[in-house]
Each structure stands twice: as structure tokens, then as C-alpha cells.
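Reopening this one. Same input as before:
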Amino acid sequence: MDESRLWGGIGILIGLAGIAIVLFYPDSEFLSMLTEGHFTEFTFLYGVGVILAVLFTALIIGPSMLRSR
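Same output, byte for byte:
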């Protein structure tokens, strides 16, 4: 297996784990702020930033990993 594909896959998995922690951690402030409409709180904006960073990273790394097969 190519080393760059390995590290890319690990990066995507770590990012997905970060999203899972932001969304599903017990007493998640992100979800409570989402349901209560507190969209300008720093914790909520941090969660949105984490999710967007992971999605953009996956969009950049994913296709190059699939093309290198």
C-alpha cells in the first residue's frame, strides 16, 4: 500500500472521529446550541468549523486517493 494513501486514510478517519465527538459526545453543547438557535456562540462556530474542515479535507484527499489505485 502506498504510504500517502495510508496517511490520507488515517487523516480522514481522524477527521470523522472529530465530527463524531463534536456531534455525539455526552452533553454535547453543539447539539443543544443547534436546537436552541444559538448560532453565534463560539462553541457552535467551532463545531461548524471542525465539520467544514473535515469535509473540505475529505473532498481534497479522497479523489486523489481513489485515482492513485
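So the earlier flakiness isn't reproducible anymore. For the record, The chain has three helices and no strands.
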